[in-house]
Amino acid sequence: MGYNIILKRVYQEIETNDGFRLLADRLWPRGFKKDSLNLDLWLPKICPSNALRKKWHNQVLTFDEFSQKYREELSEVEEDLLPLLIAARKGRLTLLSAVKNLEESHLSILKNKVLD
After folding, report:
1. Helices 106-115 and 63-75 meet at what angle, rounded to 10?
2. At 31, is the secondary structure helix, strand, or coil?
3. Model pTM?
């Protein structure tokens, strides 16, 4: 079964076909009120740890190293991924973040984890 999972920045327009909107950032995005993102769920626990996030942002790790370490972190919180799996089975799942580069971020790794 093919899941319909898309990645979006929180700054992009909210669309009616976004489906289930999940914020996948450990920190709340600056400049947004809690109700302004039209979220179905915010799961900071499934995001990279603060230590890993800082290493990635400070360019201490390559994307491959970051990806491997984040996958290890995800394996410790697999039960918290259940809402993503359920949403993806029901229809479109939109993973949201404030990151600038969606494809080279935790969102692409998270998407692939759900698709595994």
Report:
1. 50
2. coil
3. 0.92
